[in-house]
Design a protein that fits this description.
Length: about 100
């Protein structure tokens, strides 16, 4: 029998398979699961478990970015796979890596 905490997580967690590597994308704000206004500007953590990554990357997601800031998926611009995965849920969102070099 699975305990209720495993069936219904208290914080958002996504298990990802990006380019053949498994990783975890998670948030620490439980409002992201239940309140649509929390999806305006929020933080997620990204961890690949690879030897070269010593700690989770802290990402800031803005789902209401301004059109004059540029299209993050413009032609010719290389986009990390995790950003493309995030945009499958929040189309057009901008992702800030907060000083961490993006993983490709």
């Amino acid at each position: 029998q699975v305990c209720p905490g495993l069936r219904t997580p208290q914080v958002p967690v996504w298990l990802c398979s990006l380019r053949g590597r498994h990783s975890v994308l998670f948030g620490t704000d439980s409002l992201l699961l239940s309140h649509w206004r929390a999806e305006r500007l929020f933080h997620l953590h990204f961890y690949t478990g690879q030897r070269e990554q010593t700690r989770a990357a802290h990402l800031t997601i803005d789902t209401h970015s301004h059109h004059w800031e540029g299209d993050p998926s413009s032609p010719g611009k290389r986009c990390p796979a995790v950003e493309m995965a995030i945009r499958t849920k929040w189309a057009g969102a901008t992702v800030s890596w907060n000083g961490t070099d993006p993983f490709f």
